[in-house]
Each structure stands twice: as structure tokens, then as C-alpha cells.
Amino acid sequence: MEKKSIALAVALFIIGGLTGAVVDRFAMPHMGTEVSLGAAESLLESVTHGQAKAEKVFPGPGGLTGIEVTLEGRPTIAFATADGKYLVAGPVLNTQGTDEAHAAMLKLGLIPKPTSPATMAAKAAHTDSFVLGTSGPEVIAFVDPDCIFCHKFYEEAKPLIDAGKLRVRYVVVAFLKKSSGPKAAAILGAKDPAIAMAENENSFNEGTEEGGIEPARNPGIATVSAVKNNTRLLGESGEMATPTLIYCDQKGAATLIHGLNKESLKDFVAHLGNLQNGACQK
Questions:
Q1: β-strand 92-93 against 87-88: which pairing, if any?
Q2: Residue 214: CB partners within 8 Å, gap ≥ 6?
Q3: Domains of the chain, earliest start first
Q4: pTM higher than 0.85 for the full model?
């Protein structure tokens, strides 16, 4: 791979917060800025070929130095090792699974604090969305047409929906691939979004991780706006991840999770509370 390509890959890595996490705090944490701003600037210049700029440095976890970075006009966080020779881009997880990079962005005000699950649920109930199922507890699901884990959720939820044991409000978003937007528009702009959703999932290509619906070529302004608004709302959760699920627990508290739990969906549904019109009912 050419150096220019490597630099671009690192730049995208910093922007997207892709996988490849560094797990720290197995050893004694060491807090303290070891790398100067000048050294951080030199490291970013070398690695990204000037595509990223270091704005400030701050003490990071496990002996790392945090770097506030501007990349393509967007603020983000990276870390440098104590010797200033290595750049850590993407999630930095501690032993509790907390992403230190995301936490730093919140602390520095680079990203807004996540909207509460209760507020997210209330907003989702008034989005351009649709509900599958007529009885059972409701779950709000933010899904991308090209998301394979959303596809797996859809397949696992369908028999429960058909059996009257679950209702799912699907909020279709688009951010994973270039085709996600036109496919989301094809679903939301259809006369019957539920049928369009079924088409996307029944023809889902698991090998390429792409939904099967034909992308909309000339979606209407209202449909495009609906996709953007849904995606913007997902961003308020604090993380662009799908599926993102919102539900009520048995104590009547709204809960939000990114991704699927390890337990079966059937067991998960058995412990849900009552969500009605975007609010938990005790």
C-alpha cells in the first residue's frame, strides 16, 4: 500500500472510530502528558501527510497522550504513545468496556452529550417510521438497510411479531454505505414501507452485507428529509451504530442499547415493559 493510501486509511480511521481498539488499564494506569503539542503535530504530519492537525494535547489513560485533532474540518480524538512514535486511532477501551476516546470528546465538548433514552423514545415515536406487529411489547429499532446485524434482528424478530409477542417500530437511517441513503429512501418512500422493508431483508446479501431493495433514483424531498432526520436523531444517542434499540424495562424506565445482546431475542422480549406512543407505561 502506498504511503498516501495509508495516510488516507488512518484519516478515515480517526474520523470513523473503526474497530481495532486498544485495551488499557490492565497495568497500573499512568496519567500524564508525555508528548508535547509539537511532537504530536509532527506525528500527525508524518502519519496523515498533513491531512490532520493537532490542536492540543492532554493526559490520556495508560501512559498515552490525548490529542485533539481537526480532520477535514471535523474535531476528533487520537492518542500518542509515550515515546511519540505511534498514533492510536479509533476506540480505546478500558477494562469496563468504556471508550476513552469517546469520553474525551464528550469532556472536551467536541460532541454533544447523548439525549436521554426517554427523550429519544418520545422523538422516535414522531419520526417517519412504521410499526410491525399488532400486539406485545414495543421496541424501537434504528436500522440501516445495509446493516447485517439489523438484518439478523429483523429475521429473529419476525416470528415473534407474527406470533403477537412483539411490536417493532422501525426507524430507518442511512450512514453505513453510499447505497444506504437511496435504499432507506426506497423503504420510507414506498406506499407500504413494511413491504419494502421485507423486500430489502428477504433479498439481503450477507456476503456483501447489502440490503436487497432497489435504491430510489429520484426520491422526493420529503422522503430525503425523513431519512436525514431519522439519521440525525440516531446521532443524538451518542453513537452512530445499528441496530440501536430503545425499550422499557420492567420497572418502567426507558433503556437504550447499541447492538444486540448475547441473549436470545425471545428471552429479551420476555423481560420488556410497556412502551406506548414513545413513553413507558408503569
A1: unpaired
A2: 186
A3: 3-107 (3.10.450.70), 117-281 (3.40.30.10)
A4: no
